[in-house]
Amino acid sequence: MSYTRFGLMILTSTVVMFILMYLNTYAWEHLFFSETRVYMAILMGASMAVIMLSYMLGMYPNRAVNVAIYIAALIVFAVSLWLVRSQVTVSGESYMRAMIPHHSIAVMTSERAQIRDPRVRKLADEIIEAQRREIAEMRYLIGEVDKGDFVQTIHEDPPARVGTVRDALNNTLISALDPAPLSEAQAEEALEAAPRCRFNRSPESDPILWAAGERGPGVMQLNGVIIPLEAAAGGDADTSWRAEGLTTELRPLGEEADWRSDSELIFALDQGLTVGYRGFWSCAAPAG
């Protein structure tokens, strides 16, 4: 067997291993290129070169070439391991592109594991919601970074203080607030007209915004409270809703829309917190 064929075999195996690392993602829209996975595939390819050559030394009699392969494989292994662990080449955007499929794995295992204990099921459901929220937020931030929209400051909660349990229960950390999923039945409690439009962070989860038409009143859930929203002029946004203390803007992605997302929702509190998500905006046809 020729050394060229051996090299092609290792190269093919490395590419296949890189592809296989994406098979445990939950949904197609969670597939993003990951530098870290490239380095891991190369690391595994280098390991495979050493293992396969060691088993097939009888088929490759050139001692000098074999030694060169071992040395090259060890160098590639060491460099790729350093790149994986140091993350020296990973920028903020690359970090998020790598974290989305990583989060997707957590969604898949948490949703499909055969869990009987209600405490573990509750924990798994909380993980699913957190991962889906963060995936939608990372999609939004990737778009912002791609456009060069960087911020210098973000909202920060005041430092912790000494107090009682009652103080802790009455204390709301603004930076931790996010719109929570809201079922259609819950939305109907706060909307006079039937909710027809909705924004989903992912197709599998309940929407975080319902509206009675594209420019009608809306509703969202925040910190366990269902909040009615009034439609308002949106400025740069296609549609905007407002309640006392908060503004929510919907922005269709236009040419940027793809199978991963078609709109972005920006949630802003007057106290300074702003969070964006990329997801899906859809409206059902009115009944009758």
TrEMBL record:
| Pfam families xrefs | DUF305
Keyword Transmembrane helix among record annotations = yes
Sorted alphabetically, which InterPro entries does this protein's record hold?
DUF305_CopM-like (IPR005183), Ferritin-like (IPR012347)
Q: Which residues form the DUF305 domain?
A: 94-153
User: Where, if anywhere, are coiled coils annotated?
Assistant: none
Keywords tagged on the record: Membrane, Transmembrane, Transmembrane helix
Which sequence ranges are marked TM in the entry? Answer: 6-26, 38-58, 64-84
Protein name, entry field? DUF305 domain-containing protein
